[in-house]
Amino acid sequence: MKRCFYILAVLLVSLSCNPEEKGSKAEDTTGKEEVLIWAKTPDGAVWTRDDEIGIYSTDDFNSRFIVNYLEEGKENRAYFKGSLTPGARILGAYYPYVEAMGDRVDVLSIPIPSEVQYGDAPLRFDIGTYNDAAEIKLTFRRKLANLKLSFLNIDESAVKSLVLTDVTVKGQRNMVGKYAVNLLKPEQMLSGTDASDLLTFHLKDVVLTDDLVLKAAMAATWKGGDVVTVSFNGGEYVTTAVVSNSAEEGGTVELNVNMLDFNPHISLVWMSPDLGTEDGAAAEFRGNVPAVDASGNVYVQLSRGTDKLYKLNAADGTVVWSTSLGYDLDNAASPSCERDGSVIYAAGGSNKTGRIVAVNGSDGSIKWTFNKDQFFANGGTPGPNINCSTPGVGDKNIYVGNAGTTGTVQAIDKITGERVSYVSNAADGTGGPAGGVMSGIAISKGGEVAWFANYGIFTAHQAALDSPSQTGTWGGYTSWAQRISHGWAYNTSRSGVALSSVDGKDSAWAAAMEKTSAGSFNMHIIRSSLDPAASLSYTAKQFDMEYVVNDVTNQDQGGIVIGPRGEAVVSLKGTPGSILGIMPDGTLAYKYEQEGIKDVCGACAVDNNGYIHILFDQPAFYAIVEPDYNTQTCRLVASANLAELAALTPLQIRAWTSVVLGEDGRMYVAVTAHEDWSNQRGRVLCLSYTETTGPSSVSPWPQRAADSCHTGVQK
Predict the structure, then answer these.
(1) Which residue in 335, 311, 433, 450 sits closest to 386, CA to CA?
(2) Percent of the chain having pLDDT more than 90?
(3) Helix (H, G, I), strand (E, B), or coil: what is residue 260?
(4) Which pLDDT score, from 0 to 100, does residue 369 have?
(5) Where a domain ends, among 123, 138, 153?
(6) Which H or E run contains 642?
(7) Domain presence at residue 432
(8) How far is Cα of residue 385 from the mean position of the Cα atoms in its chain?
(9) Which of 293, 310, 489, 659 is deepest in the core (most CB within 10 A)?
(10) Which pLDDT value is given to residue 193?
(11) How far apart are alpha carbons 707 and 294 in whole angstroms?
(12) Residue 41 in contact with residue 140, Cβ under 8 Å?
C-alpha cells in the first residue's frame, strides 16, 4: 500500500522570528542555539499546548522541545521550540518527551521519506543520505517494539573484556527498515540495510561485560522461536540465538546470547564465476574435488556441462585458462597436480571413453593424452570408465585406476604419457583385479599402491609397477600383492582408501556398503595392515578391525580421513548428516551431527589445530568441530551457511564434494547452484578461518587424496 506521510521540517532560525512563545521549565542552554521545528501529525491527530517532543542529535542526547505556536483550526500542525548545539545534526525524534528516557524505546519515532511503499514494517531512510545543511525530514508514527539484547556467561567465554566496535543482529524476518535508534549514547547509533533483516549497533569504547545490555527500537515482526545470528566487530565472532517471544508494537522482545556459543567467523575470500555453462549447458559438481597447488591456484573439473579442466587464480578465483579434455561427460573424477602447479593430471570419461590428460599448468596446453585404447583390456577392445578416480602422483609415474573393460591400475610415465605397466590377476598377465577401481589411488610410506574396488581393498608394490619384471602380450605388468575382500558387492560406495600407521605397520582404511534385503545400507568400516612382502595374498573378511553402522544412507561421494589420534573420520549420509570417529581398535572416538541438515556427502579434512572440517548438504553448510574424546562428542568451533555466505540466495546450493585445505589454511569447496535443475551451474568457494593456517601436521591422511595436490601419498 502506498501512503503519504507529512513531515517535520527542521528550521535553524532565531526565536526572535517566532510568532508566539509558550512558557517552559528552566533549562541550561549555555553554548546552544534555539531551534524551531514545524511538525504535522499523521492520520489526522492533533497537537495540544501541553505536548512535548524529544530530539536526538549528534551532539545532544535527549533534547526537550515544547509547543511554541499552535494555530486555531489547524491543530494537527505546530511549531516546537528547543535548544541544540550549533551545527548538531538531528538523528531522530520521539513523542512524548520523557526527561529520564531510560529504556523507553517504545515511544521512539524514526525518520522516513515523505512517501513510502510499506507492509508490516515501512522503509526507513539511511542516515548517510542526510547532511547538516539539508532540511531533515522527520515524522511521528506508530510505536515500535523494544529489543533488549543481553549477554550471558561472558566471564567464562573466550571473548570476555572484548572492546566492541559493532554488534550486528541478522534475523530471518524483517526487523528494521533502513534506520533505527539506539539509546545507549547519541553517537552509538543503529543502522539497517535495504534487506531489512540486518541491524547493526555502532559502538564506541564499549567493553563486553556481564552487565552490558543493548536496547533498540525495531519493527514488530519477530516471532518467538525465530533463530537470529549475532556477530561482533565486523563478524570476527559469530553465533546464533533464539528469540524468546514475539515482538508486538510497544512491547519488548528479549534476546539472550550465550557467549560460550560464540564462534569466530568463517569468511568468504572469493567465489569463482559460473563454470561449465559457456555453451548454455547445465553444469554440476558431483564428487569432483578441487586440487590446489602450493601457490593457491585451483584446478577443477565438472561432472556435467563440460569436459574442461579449469585453472582458477589464487587471488580472486577468476578463470586463468580452461582446456577441453575430450571425454564424454558424467564424470566424477578429480585432478591431481605437481606441488608447484607445473603439471596437472586430469582423469575423466564415462561410457567407455576414459582417458588421462597431462596439462601444462602455465598456459593450459596439453602435454600428453593417455587415450582409451591405451588401457589394458586383456586382448579385447578397451572400454574404460572413470568413476571417482584421482591419479596418484609418484616420483616417476602416475597411477590411475578405471572400471569398465578391463578395470585395473596403470602406471603412466609422467614425461612421455606412455603406459609403463598394469596390474594383472594372473601369472601370464591376463585379467585385471576383480571389481575394477572405484576411486583414487593411495601410496603408502612403505611403497604400497592401494585402491578400493567392488570386492575389497587391493594393493600392488610400487617398485614392481615402476619397473615391471614381467612382460606379456600387452606389455609390462605386475601381479596384485594383496586382496582384502570385504564380500559385500555393492558398487556405489566410492569412498576410497585412507592410510595410516597402526602398531608400526602401514594400514588401509575403507568403507564398504552392504545393501540389506529391506533396501537400506549397513556401512562396514574396515582396516587391514599392508604387507610389503605379500604376493597374490588373499583374505576374505579377515580384517584387523571392522566397525558396523546399520541403516545408513548410501555413501556415494563420501570418504575417510585420519583424525588427530589416528582415528578414522567417516562421513555418513542421512538425516541428520553426521560423522563418526573410529579408533584403530574399533572403539568409538566420537560422533557429531548437525541437527536438521541432511547428508555429509564428501570426505572431511583435518587442520593444524586438529579441528575437523565438515561439508554438509541440504542446505550446504560448513562446520569446523573439535573432537572431545572424553565425552565422545565434538564441539562446534565455527560454521557458515554457504548460500548466505556467498550471497547466492535465493539459489539452492548443493554440496556433493569434499573439503580441501590449502597449504596456507584456506578452505575450498565446489558447489552446484541452481534456480531449477535445468539451469544449474558450478561454483568454487574459497573460505578462510582465522585459526586454520594449514592442513594437519600430525595426521598421515588429513584430507581426501592425502593433500591439497591430491598426490595420494601418505605422510
Answers:
(1) 335
(2) 39
(3) helix
(4) 97
(5) 138
(6) helix 642-645
(7) yes
(8) 32
(9) 659
(10) 47
(11) 11
(12) yes
| Residue 504: closest CA among 575, 446, 590 | 446
Which range in 1-5, 290-294, 547-551 is most confidently predicted, on average pLDDT? 290-294
Same domain assignment for residues 245 and 390: no
Q: Are residues 340 and 395 in the same domain?
A: yes
The alpha carbon of residue 666 and the mean position of all alpha carbons in its chain are separated, in whole angstroms, by: 12
Is the domain of 433 the same as that of 464?
yes
CA 2 to chain CA mean position, Å = 39
The model's pLDDT over 98-107, given as tens digits with 9 standing for 90+, comes to 776 544 444 4
Residue 116 has pLDDT above 50, yes or no: no
Domain presence at residue 694: no
The torsion angle over the Cα atoms of residues 556, 557, 558 and 561, rounded to 10 degrees, is: 140
Confidence band of 312 (pLDDT split at 50, 70, 90): very high
pLDDT at 137: 43
Whether residues 242 and 315 share a domain: the answer is no
The answer to whether 399 and 441 have CB atoms below 8 angstroms apart is yes
pLDDT tens readout for residues 548-593: 999 888 776 778 999 999 999 999 888 678 999 999 999 999 999 9
Q: CA–CA distance from 339 to each of 27, 294, 710 (Å)?
A: 75, 6, 9
Task: Report the CATH number at residue 259.
Answer: 2.60.40
How many whole angstroms separate alpha carbon 224 and alpha carbon 243?
5
Domain annotation covers residue 707: no
Cα radius of gyration (the chain):
33
**Confidence tier at 254 by pLDDT (50, 70, 90):** confident
Tell me 607's DSSP state: B
CB atoms within 10 A of CB 52: 17
**Region of poorest pLDDT, from 1-10, 155-164, 200-209, 658-667:** 1-10
Task: Tell whether 326 and 184 lie within a shared domain.
Answer: no
CATH number at residue 518: 2.140.10.10
- Cβ within 8 Å of residue 405, ≥6 positions away: 352, 377, 378, 380, 381, 382, 383, 384
Pairwise pLDDT comparison (597 vs 651), residue with the higher score: 597
The number of distinct structural domains making up the chain is 3
Q: Residue 213: what residue type? A: V
Name the strand (E) or helix (H) holding 645. Answer: helix 642-645
The distance from CA 390 to its chain's CA centroid, rounded to whole angstroms, is 24
Residue 650 lies inside a defined structural domain of this protein: yes
* Contact present, 530 and 540 (Cβ < 8 Å): no
Could you say which of 95, 119, 138 is where a domain stops?
138
Contacts of 226 (CB under 8 A, 6+ apart): 171, 172, 173, 242, 243
Residue of 55, 104, 46, 40 lying closest to 75 (CA atoms): 46
- Pick the most confident of 238-252, 499-513, 675-689: 499-513
C-alpha cell at 510: 575403507
Full domain range(s) for residue 104: 2-138
Chain segment 35-85, per-residue pLDDT in tens: 887 776 655 678 889 988 877 777 777 788 899 988 888 887 788 899 988
Q: How confident is the model at residue 166 (pLDDT cuts 50, 70, 90)?
A: confident
Residue type, 331: N
Distance CA 341, CA 197 (A): 43
Q: Are residues 503 and 565 in the same domain?
A: yes
Identify whether residues 282 and 244 lie together within a single domain: no
SS3 sequence of 637-687? EEEEEHHHHCCCCCCEEECCCCCEECCCCCEEEEEEEECCCCCEEEEEEEE
Cα torsion angle, 92, 169, 144, 107, sign: negative
> Three cell numbers at 77?
500542525
Residues 366, 487 within the same domain: yes
- pTM equals 0.70
The CA distance from 97 to 87, in Å, is 22
pLDDT of 103 reads 43
**Closest to 54 in 3D by CA, of 4, 2, 108, 103:** 108
